[in-house]
């Protein structure tokens, strides 16, 4: 009788430990970084409409172009950022679209 009671208790205890337990698994949020591609180009490589806009702008006549960047957004839109050396530590920056229109932010 003791053996039967002991075996029954052992089976019940074994079944309790063998029962599947559900564990909560927390998933960390995934961050997707969308960045634009930025490439430094020579000022001579700017599109002709951009160069024409720069040369026709009276306020920029005295400032030489010091650097130029081509930015390609995630959507595929291309813009150009141009730096002008205005004689100060903070350069003058302007942005243009491929048709030469100035982009004001």
Automatic annotation (TrEMBL):
Superkingdom of origin organism: Bacteria
Alphabetically sorted, this entry's keywords are: Signal
Q: Where is the signal peptide?
A: 1-18
Q: What is this protein called?
A: PepSY domain-containing protein
Q: Which organism is it from?
A: Algoriphagus oliviformis
